[in-house]
Amino acid sequence: MVYNLLTIISFYKVIFDKNCKLPKMKHFYLLILFLSMNSFAIEPFQNFILTNSGSKITIKPNFFRIDSSEKVIYYKVSTSEVESRMSFKDFDYILIGKNKFKTYKLNNSKEINGYFVLSDTDSKSLILSSRSEEESNVVHYVFYVIDSKGSILDSLEFDNQKKAKSVLIRADIFSKIQFYFRDCNMLMNRISTYDNTSLENLNLNILGFFNSPLYIECL
After folding, report:
1. Rg of the Cα atoms in the chain
2. How far is Cα 63 from Cα 65, in angstroms, rounded to an integer?
C-alpha cells in the first residue's frame, strides 16, 4: 500500500480526526491522506518533523494538524497513539508524504509563521498560506517568492471569488510564478495542467494547484 494522493483543506472551525468526533472551535489546516493500492508506485514517503536542534521525529501521516492561529502543530509519533503538540518556534520544517510545511520569519521579522513550500531552488523558494473567511466559502491565498535568507522577492494575494477583480488577479498567477521558476520543469509542468483550462472557468481551475500544495524540489 502506498500513499498516492494528499489534499490540504483549510477550515476555520473544524477539527477532524480519525474517530470523526464533533467539530471544535479552532482554525486548522487538515491533512487528509487518501490510501490506495498501486502496484506500480513504489516511491517511499518520509513523514517527520525536523526540530530546531536538528533531531527528527517520525510521525504518523494520518494524524497531523496545524493550528495557524495558535502557531502550533498536533501530531502522533509513529510508535504511539498519544497526541503531542509543538510550537512553530520549535521546529524548522515538516515533511509528510509529498508536502512540506516550514516556518519562516520573513524579511527578518520577529514574527514566525508557517507556510506550505511549493518549490525550492538553489536561490529561492515558493511558499503558500491560505485562510477561510468565517461563515462564508471565500478562501484567501497568498504566495511569496523568497530568497535563501527569507527576504520577499515578490508575492501575490488572491481569492476564489467570481467577481471581475478576482478573476483578473488570478490571471497573473501563472506568469508571475513562471518569471521566477521557468527553469523548474516539474513545477511548471504541474501548474500548467491547472492553468491550461483555467480561463474557461473564470481562472478558478488554477486554485487546484494551491489546494493540493505538493512539494517540488528543483535544486
Report:
1. 17
2. 7
DSSP assigned state of 170: H
Distance, CA of 75 to CA of 49 (rounded, Å) = 10
- Parallel, antiparallel or unpaired: strands 84-87 and 56-67: unpaired
Give the whole-angstrom CA distance, residue 156 versus residue 170: 9
Asked if residues 76 and 63 have their Cβ atoms less than 8 Å apart, the reply is: yes
Which residue type is seen at 16?
A: F
**Residue 216 near residue 190 (C-beta atoms within 8 A):** yes
CB 170 within 8 A of CB 176: no
Angle at 67 between CA 53 and CA 167, to 5 degrees: 115
**pLDDT tens series, the chain, 219 aa:** 232 333 343 333 333 333 434 343 344 444 433 333 333 333 567 899 999 999 999 999 988 999 999 999 999 999 999 999 999 999 999 999 999 999 999 999 999 999 999 999 999 999 999 999 888 899 999 999 999 999 999 999 999 999 999 999 999 999 999 999 999 999 999 999 998 877 789 999 999 999 999 999 998
What is the distance between the alpha carbons of residues 113 and 31, in angstroms, rounded to a whole number? Answer: 18
Burial annotation 44-79 (CB, 10 A radius, 16+ → b, else e): eeebbbeeeeeeebebbbbbbbbbbeeebbbbbbee
